[in-house]
Amino acid sequence: MPNETGPVTRPARAPHPLSGASLSFDLAAEAEKLRREPTWQAHGHNAKTLVKHPDFRVVLIALRAGARMSEHKTDHCVTIHALEGQLRLQLPDGSLDLSGGSLLALEQTVLHDIEAITDSLFVLSLGWSS
Asked: Which CATH number fits domain 50-130: 2.60.40.10, 2.60.120.10, 1.10.10.10, 1.10.3660.10?
């Protein structure tokens, strides 16, 4: 995405296994890496897929205060596990705040919008039938 100083490109990340019988992550270290990348510096939003199986995904997402993921829905069930900060979700029946340590589960096709009230970090998990 371009900004005032030109396009921001994501540096090549060291590859890591996305699937396997056992995967382990230091989420604090992964978050620190996300926040050092140009995407975070320029746009206040960055994400990294940690696990990718045919029927399951886990994504670590960092949002700077004020950053937003506009209204969307997925054909999959999702969980949003807030690790740090405070998120505000707009759902069909109103808004909901999630602070660090909170978990929200959404059924498939539920429209939602996510805004970071403070600098935030969360894990998005998506599961579906293959």
From this structure: 2.60.120.10
26 phi and psi angles, rounded to 5 deg: -95, 100
Per-residue pLDDT, 51: 93
**Exposure class string for 35-57: b at 16+ Cβ within 10 A, else e:** bebebbebebbbbbebbeeeeeb
Upper half-sphere CA count for residue 41 (Cβ side, 13 Å): 11
What's the CA gap between 17 and 41, in Å, rounded? 26
Q: What gap in Å lies between CA 2 and CA 19, rounded to an integer?
A: 32
Whole-number CA gyration radius for the chain: 15
Q: What's the pTM?
A: 0.85
* Annotated domain spans of the chain: 50-130
